[in-house]
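ligand=zinc ion
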Amino acid sequence: MDSMVELPCPICLAEGKLMMRALSTEIPYFGEHTQVTLLCDECGWRQTDFIPADGAKPGGWSICIDEASVLSARIVRSSSCTVCIPELDLEVNPGSSNAGYVTNVEGLLVRFGDVVDLIARDLLQEGDASAVERCRELSDSIAAVKNGDFSQPVNIVLLDPRGHSQILHENAEARELSGEELARLPVGPDPAIFSPDEV
Ligand SMILES: [Zn+2]
């Protein structure tokens, strides 16, 4: 189900090029939701969001990766969600091309590992040896947890001011975001379609 959006593209500002595709499906344990994708015909920008049918979830979710079952915990990460691993000082903010996705904890660790490897490659070209070494350590720490070595457990934290993200596991802890966090957290480009109180 595609429909034109009467708004300019938030990235290239082209008029009359923005399309919205809505798809209602069921994500196991997350429940029924609508997957909404915005696409720009002009510059190729796209953003995917997951809108839970039963209303917004608490904005903050965390889980400690300290046992094998957690690696397969499902994660719904919406485009407005910041993902952190506090122990490793890693944080991925919503960016202009940051689409929402459904993955599991292991898949998220792979994504973090890829980002760290990319940064390491850039640093290597710049000849920053100590920073490259720090990246290698991070990469090793991520790989260890991913491979089931929980001697130095880390936490996955989701911070989503719009409450469209969730960790689906019995060990996952949910909480409301503080006013300070809400003020600090970016939500990515806002085409004014997903207002915080509209669900
Ligand atoms: Zn565009």
